[in-house]
Amino acid sequence: MDVRRFANTWNGIHSFNNFLRVVVICLIVTNIVSVFGWIGKDQLVLILPPNTNEKVEISRMNASQSYKKAWALFIASLLGNINPENAEFIKASLANMVTGEIKLAMNEQIAMAIEQLKQEKVSAVFEVRQVIYEPETDHVFVAGHTNLVGAGGKTNTSDQTYEFKIDVDQYSPLITYLSIYTGGPKTAAVLAVEREKEESIRKQTANPNKP
């Protein structure tokens, strides 16, 4: 029996077994890390909502602009076509989609709108003209015409804009900003132009004799 050859073979097998143990341990650790990473990763859901041709992406805490635009359009359509008969339904429908501060302001806005409709004996119809998403502010603007229809079909039309910031909480929309105003969308570009005009007027007023 060749003792030296046997010893070398035995040492080689032992070393190879140790190598295999290290490889197996590394694979186990890698699998564990992969499993926890998969569990902790946000799931991305792709949906195609009705009445839109845009693909919508939504995760647990975020969503694509098409998702936010779709919800903004839906909410603006509800608020823009409110009347004494559907006011409570609309408030209940939006109750879980707004923060506490927004909910209070929204309910006050609805109450004022209903009181105006009752006093003027008119009904409101909101016609959407455009929906704009502004990446810089993450705001959505739903702009259109509000028609106040009175007795005899007489109509008074004005431009109206609903401005939203819609976040996502556990795959559900959450309105964190809401502003309703007369006129066109007050985008960042529009506000910048308005500030320049105001600054120019202020300078002219401060120096009336300066050309």
What does this structure look like?
The protein has 5 helices and 6 strands. The protein is α+β, with helices and mostly antiparallel strands. It has one domain: Roll (Nuclear Transport Factor 2, Chain: A), CATH 3.10.450. The longest helix is centred in the N-terminal third of the chain and has 38 residues. It is extended and about 95 Å long. The N and C termini lie far apart (113 Å).
Count every helix, treating DSSP H or I runs of 4 or more residues as helices: 5
Strand content: 25-35%
In total, the number of domains comes to 1
Q: Would you state the CATH class?
A: Alpha Beta
Q: Taking strands numbered 1, 2, ... along the chain, how are they ordered across the largest sheet?
A: 3-4-5-6
- CATH architectural designation: Roll
CATH homologous superfamily identity? VirB8 protein
Structural class: alpha+beta
Rounded to the nearest angstrom, the distance between the terminal CA atoms is 113 Å
Largest sheet: 4 strands, antiparallel
Rg estimate, integer Å: 31 Å
Shape: extended
* CATH fold assignment: Nuclear Transport Factor 2, Chain: A
